[in-house]
Structure formats: structure tokens, C-alpha cells
Amino acid sequence: MKISVLHLERGMLLENKRIIGLASMEYLQAGFIILGILAACSEYSGGQIRTTLSTIPWRGLQLSSKYLALAIITMPVAFIIAASGVIYTFIMMRDTALGIEIDTMIETLIGATGYLTLTTLLSAAIGALLRRTTPALVVLLGYYFIVSPLSRDFLPSIKNYFPDTAGYYMYMPPSSDEINVLTPMQGTGISMIWTLIFITAAIVFYCKRDA
Questions:
Q1: What dihedral do alpha carbons 54, 211, 70, 147 form, nearest 10°?
Q2: Fewer C-beta within 10 Å: the chain N or C terminus?
């Protein structure tokens, strides 16, 4: 009985470390949303998009390559930023548990990195659809910080299928009293589906309309 209680307490301490280390993710994602929007809309503000299309006339290939380059740039940045919070928390709280769970820390960092990368790509796709920085910022920041939090209370049955809520389960442990929680793989899958839908729509519209 004592062993079971000890394991339970140790598990709770490890989960608390993970929660504290990623407590700023809700606000940290705003920076990656802005990064994605700027990557998509910056070429339209000064008319550079015409030069880009003159150099690379294959629009689908050009935009797909842009998203790939954005993902490559975003992943190490997201990993470093997420790691700074998680590793610091694990080090500062090392005396509250028997030791640092490397596997848990790696899983958390991979999930957080994946979520921030998918959020950046999703933002870039919506930016490409709207083609203007300010409207894209209003739509995305309004959704992530106003609409989505409110919808979790009014639409509890479908809240897990929203991109930000599904992405939450990629890196954060579900609460013991939550119902219909998602696994990290399910959260990743739903987030990827949302991202691919918007990327596909962005590429289709990009190929059909004028610069």
C-alpha cells in the first residue's frame, strides 16, 4: 500500500513539473502565430510577391516549399523555447522527486515542439488565404484567445476537435477528472488534419487567383 501511494505521489510530482514548465505555452503560441502570419503576408505588403512569382512561376511548388522552409526554421526555435521552460523546471524541482524522468521530458518537448510548429504552419496558411497581416492577426488571435476559450464552456462535446484544444493534448497531461480526453497521438492527428486542410486550401486559392 505504501509503495502504491509513493508511486502515485511521484507521478503527480512529475506531472506537476510538466504543467509548470509549459504554463506559458498559451501565451507563447501567440509569437508563433505572428511568425506564421508574417511569413505569409510580408510579401504582399510591398508587392514582393510579383517578383517571387516571376522567379518561380510554379505557384503550388513555391508555396509548398515556403511552408517546408518555415517548418524547418520553426522546429528548432520551438524546441529551444519549450526546452528552456521544461528543463529549468525539472532542474529547480529535482529535489521533489527521485530524479528527472528523461523519457517524460523528451515526450513533453517533442509534443510542445510539434504543437508550436503546426500552429505556425496553420497561421501561415490562413495568412496566405487572407493576404493581409492585420485581418489575419485579428482572426487568429481572436480565435485562440477569445472564441476558443469561450467555446470550451458552451460546446464541451466538440471542444477536443478544435486545433488548439487537440494540440493541448500533444504536450500536457489530461486532468484525472476530464471526460473524453485525447491521447497525444489523437491530439497530434487532429491538429495535423486542421493544418493540412488550411494548407491545401491556401495552395488551391494561391494557384487560382491573381497575386
A1: 180
A2: N
